[in-house]
Amino acid sequence: MPAARHRGRATPLLVASHAADKGRSASSAGSDRGAEAGIPDLPLVTKEISGFAAIANGLNLPVLLLAGVLLPISLGPAWMHVLAHVNPLYYLVQASRVLAGGTLSGTAVWQAFAVLVPLCALVLTWATGVLRTAVS
Description:
Blueprint: E1 5-6, E2 9-10, H1 12-21, H2 32-37, H3 42-46, H4 49-67, H5 78-84, H6 88-100, H7 107-135
Antiparallel strand pairs: 1-2
């Protein structure tokens, strides 16, 4: 995959992904710590805030939409209902709505705990490993 050109220059993010495809370090445009952890530092790879903002918004918007933060899931089509239940933030939003209504022991609250507590433990374990790898 050749590097994409944008106004006559190579797009750093695509160059980094091309380097990763070829088996070279994806962080040659980023920091060494990200490479050791196996994750490129996106702000350093994109080199421009607009590139990083596009990536961040491109990931956040679908997640928030499927969580029911921007619009209620009940207004969406059936496929959106199915995808919403895969999104952990959906359970957080539902529990927040129940708690805001004054109910402390609603079904949505227990579902949120059942989904989010193991997810938090998993992410904490992963982040700790990444940090230990990056520091050592």
